[in-house]
C-alpha cells in the first residue's frame, strides 16, 4: 500500500496496488462487461491506442461527466482509439447508466469482482474499495504513455492533456 497525496473530499486516502508510470508496459487485466462476459484488456483493445478512464462510480456527478465527456470525444478518433471507462459499479448499473446517457462510443466495464485493474495499476482506494479517479493512455504496443492520478478524487481529470497525448500517437 502507498500513502499518496491523493485526497477524497479533502481527506488523504491510501491507494493500493502498484503505481503505474509512463514508460511501463501496461499489464493485461480482466474486468466484467455489461453483459457479464469477461473483458480482457489485451484481446479487446488489440492494435489500438487505448485510453483507460478510471472513475469511482458512474452514479456520481463527476464520474458521469467524465464518462459522457469521453463518449462525446471518442468520435474524434474513429477506429484508431479504444476508450475504456472502468469503475467498480455492478455491470447492471453500468448498463442502465449507459442506456440512459446514450453511451455508445466507448466501453464501460466493471472491476467490482476482482479489482484486477485497480491492483495492477494502483488505483484501489483502500479505505473504500473504490477506484480512484484518473486516466491512463497506452500505445498500440501496450506501453504506457501518460498517467494521471487525479489529486482530489472529487475533481475531473485533465481531459485535454490526455487527449493531447493520444493525438501524438495517431
Provide structural commentary:
By secondary structure, this protein is α+β, with helices and mostly antiparallel strands. Helices cover 26% and strands 30% of the residues. The protein contains five helices and eleven strands, in the order E-E-E-E-H-E-H-E-H-E-H-E-E-E-E-H. Strand 5 (49-54), helix 2 and strand 6 (81-87) form a beta-alpha-beta unit. 43% of the residues are buried. The mean pLDDT is 96.
Topology readout:
Blueprint: E1 2-8, E2 11-16, E3 30-32, E4 38-40, H1 41-44, E5 49-54, H2 61-73, E6 81-87, H3 91-101, E7 107-110, H4 116-121, E8 124-125, E9 130-131, E10 134-138, E11 144-149, H5 159-169
Parallel strand pairs: 5-6, 6-7
Antiparallel strand pairs: 1-2, 2-8, 3-4, 5-10, 8-9, 10-11
Keywords: Antioxidant, Disulfide bond, Oxidoreductase, Peroxidase, Redox-active center
Protein name: Thiol peroxidase (Atypical 2-Cys peroxiredoxin)
GO molecular function, one term: thioredoxin peroxidase activity
Q: Give the CATH H-level superfamily.
A: Glutaredoxin
- The total count of strands amounts to 11
The coarse overall form would be globular
What are the segments in which pLDDT stays under 50 over at least 5 consecutive residues? none
Work out the count of structural domains. Answer: 1
Order of strands in the sheet with the most strands? 7-6-5-10-11
Our count of helices gives 5
For the biggest sheet, the summary is:
5 strands, mixed
User: What radius of gyration results from the CA coordinates?
Assistant: 14 Å
Tell me the name of the CATH class. Answer: Alpha Beta
Task: Give the CATH topology.
Answer: Glutaredoxin
Spell the H/E element sequence: EEEEHEHEHEHEEEEH
Task: Give the second-level CATH assignment, the architecture.
Answer: 3-Layer(aba) Sandwich
